[in-house]
Design brief:
Layout lengths: L11 E7 L5 H11 L3 E2 L2 E2 L1 E6 L4 E3 L7 E3 L11 E5 L9 H12 L3 E5 L3 H6 L7 E2 L6 H7 L4 E2 L5 E4 L2 E4 L4 H14 L1 H10 L27 H8 L8 H8 L3 H12 L3 H19 L4 H8 L4 H12 L3 H8 L3
């Protein structure tokens, strides 16, 4: 998927630990996102599902699920993902030992939804920030007070340990991991192929406080799409409201409801994302990257990129541009 990657780039091995019972969706997300990263016909990720006891695993619904591998594959993995409702009640000691060994080896470890309980039980979240489905974060905080539980975000990155909120937030986390490995351009291409939202920042809210007004029945998706084609141009709140044909107050309220962000914060996030793609895929000078992304000057580009990814533009380009 990324023509700049060398042919001999090693396949990244992912072990998905299922702690039953699990939802089919929990196991489908890694395949959906990581499985879409292909270079010259070769998958960049190998995804294998394992459990404390390989074989059929308990699941919700009528779909039968199977873990073809035991926990021995965890030691071979570059990334370990943990998922399953069982993490909230009982986690086999063998799973906890495998997680501790992986952490000691420096392996990247992530939890999806209630998988955070398994990481906490293994002691991997002590002193770290973490999240889970918003309906379970109070319990997570109560049972593991040494964990800095953040109940209102999509996902958390704290060193080599990652955690995501419920259900669809696992998609956001997996896209974030793809972006960390291969850059923004590849992650956004995967998102487009999977017909899901582009990479969202982990600090975005998990859920909205109230539903959209039923009498309107429309969304701001067309306005957001319109803005994405004009990131290099000045775009004001008035411009957005005029395009949506609504008042400024309604614009702000509905933007927050639909994206979890204010209009200007959303616009800035898209401009930073655009700058990252330009840094990866072009050799444009920094001032031109800033201008095309709508960030103004090279100094502004540097400030925003440092704030979002803790890298300067030149360092980011060097890290994610492969000959």
């Amino acid at each position: 998927m990324n023509a700049r990657e060398p042919e001999d780039l090693a396949t990244h091995r992912i072990a998905v630990i299922a702690v039953p019972p699990v939802f089919t969706f929990d196991l489908a997300v890694p395949e959906l996102i990581f499985g879409a990263v292909v270079h010259h016909g070769r998958p960049r990720y190998e995804i294998r599902v394992c459990a404390a006891e390989p074989g059929p695993i308990a699941s919700f619904g009528s779909t039968g699920l199977t873990a073809r591998h035991g926990l021995e594959i965890v030691a071979e993995a570059d990334t370990v993902l943990v998922t399953g409702k069982g993490s909230q009640t009982f986690v086999d000691e063998a799973v906890l030992e495998a997680l501790r060994a992986a952490a000691a080896a420096g392996t990247r470890i992530a939890s999806m939804c209630t998988g955070a309980f398994a990481l906490a039980a293994a002691g991997l979240l002590d002193g770290r920030g973490a999240t889970a489905h918003w309906q379970t974060t109070a319990e997570l905080s109560s049972r593991y007070p040494q964990v800095d539980v953040r109940p209102d975000v999509l996902y958390v990155e704290d060193g080599p340990i990652f955690s995501s909120a419920g259900v669809a937030a696992a998609i956001d986390l997996c896209l974030h991991l793809v972006r960390s490995d291969h850059g923004a351009a590849v992650a956004n291409e995967v998102a487009r192929a999977a017909v899901v939202a582009p990479v969202r920042h982990g600090g975005q809210a998990q859920f909205v406080e109230s539903a959209l007004p039923p009498e309107r029945g429309t969304t701001l998706a067309p306005t957001r799409a319109w803005a994405l084609t004009r990131l290099g141009e000045p775009i004001s709140l008035t411009d957005l409201a005029r395009h949506a044909n609504i008042s400024l107050r309604t614009l702000t309220r509905r933007f927050k409801a639909e994206t979890g962000l204010s209009p200007l914060r959303w616009l800035l996030a898209q401009r930073v994302e655009r700058a990252r793609e330009l840094l990866e895929t072009t050799s444009l000078p920094m001032d031109q990257v800033a201008r095309h992304a709508g960030l103004g000057s090279a100094d502004s580009l540097r400030d925003h990129l440092r704030r979002h990814v803790r890298l300067t533009p030149s360092a980011y380009r060097s890290a994610f541009t492969r000959a």
